[in-house]
Amino acid sequence: DAKTTQPNSMESNEEEPVHLPCNHSTISGTDYIHWYRQLPSQGPEYVIHGLTSNVNNRMASLAIAEDRKSSTLILHRATLRDAAVYYCILSLLNSGNTPLVFGKGTRLSVIA
Amino acid sequence: EPEVTQTPSHQVTQMGQEVILRCVPISNHLYFYWYRQILGQKVEFLVSFYNNEISEKSEIFDDQFSVERPDGSNFTLKIRSTKLEDSAMYFCASRYGRIANTGELFFGEGSRLTVL
Question: What is the radius of gyration, based on Cα positions, of chain A?
């Protein structure tokens, strides 16, 4: 399985943008890039996913490097509620029922 | 908004006892999963289920574990003889279609299992 590397922790000030990096240098052409987050005492929650192009949704933006060896999750204005562990995960294009495998993720702290 | 629901939210049991954790996935979803998270550790995959059979399972999912979808709505995880190391938060998840089409895996709030 292609692996991802994320910083253990990051800190941000409230209402400022946050850029969460993920390295996936062994990604294959058919791997999707997923981001999930886990708020304290809750189950993981989908954030965004993409293949090659940058993606935007109501929660965040995903910027994917041209060579796809890295990506960045962008929270445009961090709030206290965004404090969570953020996971960057790869999965095959047509993985069917192949499960998502969570790593240790990045623990984001948001300071008021 | 549709959600995955899990019961019980917390169960305390004695070592060696059987435990059943229940999940109601989102109604039109087709793929079902159980994950667990030991306190302070990462979320670990246990088993995936599709078309009424196990698709994939991890090394953690040994003979003490079983899953079933008894009535088309519930999805259960049974631990036959609990061990201390089974103490964890157990998450159920479901998905409608393939990753390429939908991407989103919906998780429940979890069932905390404490084995004494």
Answer: 13
